């Protein structure tokens, strides 16, 4: 009996931890200032969040139903393969489209400069104009 | 031996496919086992043209240690990024870092890029066409040189050892 209570504790803790991590990862989208920083939330915060929830699911169904449930491991595996690839493609697209980034970003690799090496100046797509309040301007301090 | 080699060009990949199939159907019935073996042999043969030749795993034990380390680092990365998100006072200092690659095989570079994206505050953003440099975006950049050194010793060296000798 005590064993089951302990398992219940473990499952609940895993579920709550998973929810919290997924939520904080999503909160990063709100908190961070530019596209590249926002990428960090979903690529990391959510992997652990989903991982915790899947572990809880594995434990729960292994206890409740006969047999061991491990096919959740597959979800984890596919997630670990796909999440970084998605992140990489998004980041690459962001670089390609010259998305804006915060001024305190350090380092200036050639990908961020206007000209491609060995080519003429490349036309950048026009930036959508949006009236920003003075406070917003001060807070964002965006380059370009 | 040669005919076996032709039928099973990538034994490891076939084994992984078989395990994935058995996990998907959740059964060890002989029928499913047979179907799984057929799929595990057929899929690599059908898709062989799509792959670059896969390097062999030279040190399985090092691979296990590497996977364990990456899982641990994912845990740490999550805590660090969550801390950065939740702490309001201090703004993170983002930055781009160019990382000179030692590894050359496409598969190894892919694995390294994926590992970098999954672990502490870094997202790989671009691989230069000549496969010599990886561009990394760092969420909270403290010391560029230390970061490059950390990635070199923690991830790239083991990967190089596992796949390339």
Automatic annotation (TrEMBL), chain A:
GO terms for molecular function: sodium:proton antiporter activity. Residues 102-144 are annotated as: Disordered. The keyword Membrane applies. The chain crosses the membrane at residues 6-30, 42-61, 73-91. Keywords: Membrane, Transmembrane, Transmembrane helix. InterPro entries: PhaG_MnhG_YufB. Residues 102-137 have a biased composition (Basic and acidic residues). It comes from the Bacteria. This is Multisubunit potassium/proton antiporter, PhaG subunit. The lineage of its organism: Bacteria, Pseudomonadati, Pseudomonadota, Gammaproteobacteria, Oceanospirillales.
UniProtKB/TrEMBL annotation, chain B:
GO terms for cellular component: plasma membrane. It comes from the Bacteria. It is found in: Cell membrane. It is a multi-pass membrane protein. One of its GO terms (molecular function) is monoatomic cation transmembrane transporter activity. Keywords: Cell membrane, Membrane, Transmembrane, Transmembrane helix. The keyword Transmembrane applies. Its main location: membrane. Signal peptide: none annotated. Pfam families: MNHE. The chain crosses the membrane at residues 7-25. Belongs to the CPA3 antiporters (TC 2.A.63) subunit E family. This is Multisubunit potassium/proton antiporter, PhaE subunit. It comes from Franzmannia pantelleriensis. The lineage of its organism: Bacteria, Pseudomonadati, Pseudomonadota, Gammaproteobacteria, Oceanospirillales.
